[in-house]
Amino acid sequence: MDLTALFSLNYGLYVLATRDTDGKYVGCVVNAAMQITAEPPSMAVSSNSQNYTTGAVLRSGMFTLSVFSEQAALKTISTFGFRSSNDIDKFKAMPYIVTESGMPVLTREVCAYVECKVTGSEDIYTHKLIRGDIIDSRRLSKESPMTYNYYHKVVKGKTPKKAASYQNG
Amino acid sequence: MDLTALFSLNYGLYVLATRDTDGKYVGCVVNAAMQITAEPPSMAVSSNSQNYTTGAVLRSGMFTLSVFSEQAALKTISTFGFRSSNDIDKFKAMPYIVTESGMPVLTREVCAYVECKVTGSEDIYTHKLIRGDIIDSRRLSKESPMTYNYYHKVVKGKTPKKAASYQNG
């Protein structure tokens, strides 16, 4: 088995976010998200069970995915990716909008977003595989979306050990 | 809702394949596949419930994902993507290898593959969301993997209506 072969799978880079039941906006970086049906449009996202945001998404029953563009700076990604929403308010110093349903969407270096209503979730080892119906989606800029490969090769980004597809270095 | 915003999500292009219980090698093209955990490595793939291959994967309990490289020709992709394994033997005129578990892996214009043991599946509207433990993965070439965007923009490929993320044209 050559686990580096898994780097051939394509991913984007997203901020999974929600408004927790106490009103706090929380978010974390995920790369494993995909549409699973077109009609009706629905999605699945894999998020580490230990992430504060994962629990908040399941409590609120709603989430957004902000799609990082290739212009996304490592600093922005790091704010959402390598710290816990339990410790800091990640949205505090960031530009964001709030959807009609009250969910936060990061707008810095983000080219689109998707908003979902959670329809189910399942424990898969270390992660929750969360499914949702897409209730809204919008483009925010014409920039190209960041790919996970671009993040590693061009942005020289790292992957935290809690990621769905951990890449060492 | 601007459903074209969903085009910002990143995908690859894969042949989902298996050895059916009658011994026949079957496969279809999917774009929605992702790793969901790193330790142990596991995956999820979304495949249309009407696809012959989807039923075969659930019967056999095993599947492979052959990762198309950017060099993949429309003709190769079309063979697996726009016809049914119920009607033709898609592997007949194609180069492929068979894994130790007896599963077929397309090798033409493919840069890597992943082999999985099915651990569960769920009906999500038109599709089955199939989960599997990764039991093997290998690189087959150093070419870059095809992205779904590259397929649409450069290869000028179409998407069948049964895809997880249908793009009109």
CATH architecture of chain A: Roll
Task: Show the largest interface.
Answer: A-B, 51 and 51 residues
CATH H-level homologous superfamily name of chain A: Electron Transport, Fmn-binding Protein, Chain A
Main sheet record of chain A:
7 strands, antiparallel
Average pLDDT of chain A works out at 92
Through-space gap between termini of chain A: 19 Å
Can you give the helix content of chain A as a percent range? 10-25%
Number of helices of chain A: 3
Rg from alpha-carbon coordinates of chain A? 15 Å
Major sheet: arrangement of strands of chain A: 2-1-5-8-9-4-3
Index terms:
globular; 169 residues; two-stranded antiparallel ribbon; seven-stranded antiparallel beta sheet; homodimer; mainly beta
What do these coordinates show?
2 copies of one chain form a homodimer. Chain A is globular. Chain A has a single domain, classed as Electron Transport, Fmn-binding Protein, Chain A (Pnp Oxidase, Chain A, Roll), CATH 2.30.110. Helices cover 14% and strands 40% of the residues of chain A. Chain A has 169 residues and is mainly beta. In chain A, 51% of the residues are buried. Chain A has a 7-stranded antiparallel β-sheet with strand order 2-1-5-8-9-4-3. A two-stranded antiparallel sheet of chain A has the order 6-7. Chain A has 3 helices and 9 strands. In chain A, strand 8 and strand 9 (127-139) form a beta hairpin. The mean pLDDT of chain A is 92. The interface between A and B is large, with 51 and 51 residues.
What's the quick description here?
The structure is a homodimer of 169-residue chains. With 169 residues, the first copy, chain A, is mainly β.
